[in-house]
Sequence to fold (134 residues):
Amino acid sequence: MLNRHESREAVLGLVFENEYGIYEDKQELYTTALAAREIEENEYIKTVFFGVIEKADELDAYIEKYAKGRKLARIAKVAKSIMRIAIYEMLYIDSIPASVSINEAVELIKEYDDEKTKGFVNGILNAVKEEIEK
Fold:
């Protein structure tokens, strides 16, 4: 059984892989990737992956709004994927406090991206949190 952090890592892999557009059928991507990585499916992984895919335009709008002039296309795919997951959690999963989503995103950035990206991601996610909480 995966813990929440491991489940987030699994979702990150799926969302990141989706960035490359190899699979037209998102269900095929999901099924194939889980099998290839020997990941045990759980409700969190399924809900967040398909939710991020469905709400990508909305999530990207939040990122662009607070990215201080940086175009979405210029943001690293891994950072963008991590932010999409965190913003999706903040908007659609009431059982996860926004501060937990942000903290987990920063931890994922530390593991999978450049240290300099941490502040950028943290700033965007905190701005989104403030907007949502208004």
